[in-house]
Amino acid sequence: MKLKKVIFSLAVLAAGICSCDDNTDTLGGSIIENLDNINVTSATFPIASKSVASGPVYSRSTTGYLGKIKDPETGAYIKGNFLTQFYTLEGTQLPEESSIQSKLNDGSLIADSCVIYLYYDNYFGDSLSTMKLKALELAKPMEEGKKYYSDFNPDTEGYLRKGTGSVSVNKTYSLYDLAADTMPKKIKVKLPNSKLDADGNILKYAYTDKDNKNYYNYGTYIMQKYYENPKLFKNSYTFIHNVCPGFYFESTDGLGSMANINLSQMLIYYRYKYEKESNGVKKDTTVNVVTTFAGTEEVIQASSVANDNDKIQNMVNDNSCTFIKSPAGIYTELTIPVDDILKGHENDTINSARISLTRINNSVNEKYSFRKPTTLMMVPKDSLKQFFEDEKLIDNKETYLAVYSESDNSSYGTVENAYTFHNIANLITFMNGIREEAVGEEPAKTSQEWNNWNAKREAWEAAHPDWNKVLIVPVSTTYATVGQTSQLVKVSNDMSIAETRLVRGEETNSNITISVVYSKFEKR
Questions:
Q1: Is 110 helix (H, G, I), strand (E, B) or coil?
Q2: Angle ∠(514,456,427) on CA atoms, nearest 5
Q3: Among the residues of 19-53, which ranges form H helices?
Q4: What are the φ/ψ torsions at residue 218 (nearest 5 degrees)?
Q5: Nearest alpha carbon to residue 379 among 387, 371, 370
């Protein structure tokens, strides 16, 4: 059933070029007379759909999620924790060790304090909800070559440093911010200082490193490691593997809010002295300074998500609709009727094939209802894992994007309250091509060869049950402006809180259809 490779648009363009006469009275007639007739037909076919649990998803992202919330419509709980490493600029330098003025009574150098800020650009839920987190130090770094999924548990996989003197800080917070809207919203996690007696002598050290060396605080550890060997700070790799593997932030208590952490920073405060000249007079001046290490795209940041699996399965079993749910929740599966589309059109060109997935409005009107997904991706079911792990982009051959539309727009072919995949013609050709490559083209139906070929095809389809199935997946997209155009540069799993129900399709109804337009040339 191999389709003829005919580029319909080029044929029309060629027809236009062949008629250059200024007199347009016979333009249409001249085109028709000099070219074969083009026969254009259309058809629609029903598509079957169902919900499938996504399971763990590839979760490396520039955004971390922290908190715990409850879906007001389904009652399902979602908890988010995240992990981050910290970035150091090439050639990071601290002031000369002799200039540091932050010291203990015995003259040893210290950091006055060390703070981690978790900045959030937005959040879901009630900002007044009282939440609790725990900040935990990593014992070893997450590695670039390993793929981290949303069910990643740093505790069971041995990534958390435990024992006396390691960083383990409990923090109670709410997302309500008294600061002006222009101020960055943040959760402040202060790492502890050592306890001192009335004379300034240490009673109990706040931090002990893996070599059992004691420090006034974690910032002091960072500073002293620098002065011992500045080469450990020459880049992020050496810093992460020799000094600071990173931190894990676990939501431990509270319900009602989920923060979208878009930036994390570790700040080390200390004082140092420098020589300042004023009116020709030089004198020593002591200033308060801060050295910052940030969690950025250059280092690993990953979210772990705990979903209510029983609730997820109940939603999957709901035959009244299908679901799209993130993070790490539910996808919608479609079965593309490739054979029905190609039957009787073996020598035609498929010009377009469009699918619209209609959304069902929420049945519960709550203040904190989950938002609907903005962007959905269509991807062959057996290609999903590789797509994200290989950080691929949309190619409009195997993968496609659809953006939610609130209204009909005939100019753009969008449908009200739906997600429209405008033209997946290449996907149909691709699916059929994969099968043909394995079993060969259909031979003459009057020979024994056809029976052998058909048996081979049936066996291949049985061994590859997902060959004509796609998943509809919520994604986050990143665009960059190149010259005057905006280009897609990244597609990742949508790890934000989003959910919607879609109209369910069956092979025997027309709730979901694929609209196909064919064309072929016919001799007069």
A1: coil
A2: 25
A3: 27-34
A4: -65, -35
A5: 387
CA nearest neighbour of 501 among 359, 389, 393, 394 = 359
Taking the CB of residue 167, how many other CB atoms lie within 10 A of it?
Answer: 22
Mind listing the pLDDT tens digit for each residue in 98-145? 999 999 998 999 999 999 999 998 899 999 999 999 999 999 998 877
CA distances from residue 98 to 214, 229, 255, 415 in whole angstroms, order as listed: 21, 15, 49, 69
* Beta bridge partner(s), residue 113: 269
Beta strands at 207-208 and 301-307: parallel, antiparallel or unpaired: unpaired
Half-sphere exposure of 127 (CA within 13 A, CB side): 12
The Cα–Cα gap between 49 and 55 comes to: 18
Mean pLDDT of 32-44: 74
Contact (Cβ atoms closer than 8 angstroms) between residue 138 and residue 154: yes
With beta carbons less than 8 A apart as the criterion, state whether 59 and 495 touch.
Answer: yes
Helices (H) and strands (E) in the chain, counts: 9, 26
Q: CA-CA distance, 243 to 209, in Å (whole number)?
A: 10
Collapsing DSSP to helix, strand or coil, 34 comes out as helix
Does pTM surpass 0.85? no
* Rounded Cα distance, 352 and 41, in Å: 11
Q: Tokens representing 111?
A: 């950091």
DSSP bridge pairs for 70: 77
Both tokens assigned to 334 = 């479609």
Torsion from C-alpha of 472, 475, 478, 484, nearest 10 degrees:
30
Residue 422, both tokens: 């405008």
| DSSP conformation letters of 317-333 | T-TT-EEEEETTTEEEE
Rounded Cα distance between 243 and 235, Å, is: 11
Read off the pLDDT of residues 261-288 as tens digits, 9 standing for 90 and up.
989 999 999 999 987 777 767 778 889 9
Question: Which pair of tokens denotes residue 270?
Answer: 């200390």
